[in-house]
Amino acid sequence: FGRAGGGVSRAPVARGRRGRLGNARRRGWWACACAGGMSETPRRGRRRGRMSAFCGGGPLPRLLLWVAASAAFGGALTLARGREAGAQYFAGYLVEQSLSVDNLCVFSLIFRFFRTPAAAQDKALAWGILGAGVMRGVCILLGAALLERFTWLLGACALVLLWSAWKLLMEGDDDDAGDLSDNWAVRLCRRVIPVTERYEGERFISAQRTASGGTRFTPLLLVVAVIEISDVVFAVDSIPAVFGVTTDPLVVYSSNMFAILSLRALYAVVNHAVASARFLQPSVAIVLLFIGVKMLLALAGVVEVPVGASLAVVAGVLSAGVAMSVLYPKKPQGDGDGETQAAKAAIAGAV
């Protein structure tokens, strides 16, 4: 190479190979982040049975499997891209997992309101998780592109987090019973989706037809639609919260996805324990407050909080909230009042 006769220089070829290798690595990381979502896609028949057997046949082994997968992905990310990327991932994952507590309350409220059979709840959660993964992927890519061009939007995200923290801290205990009949999301879905009065196993399409012969759907599709709309409401808080930790779209999406993917098993494990965690919601509010203030201070050029310090604060506050909830549990006050109030506030937060 480099000889007379039109030889090609080796350096551009090497740079081209390195560029293609870097692009391949990036595509590989995105594929790893998305592969978990595909594994939670609803399955039928023997494939689904083999997966259940592999996961131990219960929600707790499946939850431990997802936590281990999340930690393994974070460890691999740390080795490949450095400590800062790993710390950003784990901080974002902890924030997303803590915000998922409201999701669990809403799932429980929706299933109780629509009287969803236990056998159909797992399928509704699976389809809800699949839709949430697609929707959040689009929002994160769009948000990252906007933040790259308009950095002042980080200030708007910070204000959203401060508002959410204030709502969580000021939430009262005098909400009435959890009747979703007048909720805007439920009314919208019922207006758009023609549903029957009863479930038909795990089917979405009903065997019944309208008077004109059109298709009607079972209440299970209505449940999935309400879950998807409620996740849009949650994304207003959760996505800006992780953007407050990092603007790297891969880290934001992977931390979101691994937190969401464990919800299906987490719901079955801690569904009834969430309502008694009296100090968990205030600790989540403090985390949102911290991230919002950190974003505003960074935009103003006052101080830049290191990622390691942010991870320590998030982990410490959430751990303290869980420990206080265990040491000083909430006293029972009737039939699920605490869970109903938290769920109502979360699902109606955008009204």
Report the uncertain regions: 1-15, 44-56, 173-177, 335-340, 342-351
How much β-strand is present in the residues?
Answer: under 5%
Decide which structural class fits the backbone.
Answer: mainly alpha
Radius of gyration: 23 Å
What strand order characterises the main sheet? 1-2
Distance between the termini: 68 Å
Q: What is the β-strand count?
A: 2
Q: Mean pLDDT across all residues, rounded?
A: 75
Main beta sheet: strand number and arrangement?
A: 2 strands, antiparallel
SSE sequence, one letter per element: HHHHHHHEEHHHHHH
Number of helices: 13
The outline comes out as globular
Helicity level, as a percent range? over 70%
User: What is the quaternary state of this protein?
Assistant: single chain
Could you explain how this protein is built, in words?
- This protein has 351 residues and is an all-alpha fold.
- Helix content is 72%, strand content 2%.
- The protein contains 13 helices and two strands, in the order H-H-H-H-H-H-H-E-E-H-H-H-H-H-H.
- The model is unreliable at 1-15, 44-56, 173-177, 335-340 and 342-351 (pLDDT under 50).
